[in-house]
Amino acid sequence: MQPANYLLRLGDNPLILGQRLAEWCGHAPVLEEDIALTNIALDLIGQARLLLAHAAALQGTGDEDSLAFLRDVEGFRNVTLVELPNGDYAHTTVRNALFFAYQCELWQALQASHDAQLAAIAAKSLKEANYHWRHSADWLLRLGDGTEESHARAQAALDELWRYSRELFTDDEVDAAAARDGIGVLPSSLESAWAARILPLMEQATLTLPAATTFCSRGKSGYHSEHLGYILAEMQFMQRAYPGAKW
Amino acid sequence: MNEWPLFEVFIRSKQGLDHKHVGSLHAPDAKMAIQMARDVYTRRQEGVSIWIVPSSAIVASDPNDKAANFDPMEDKIYRHPTFYQLPDEVDHM
Question: Is 0.85 exceeded by the ipTM?
Answer without folding.
Answer: no
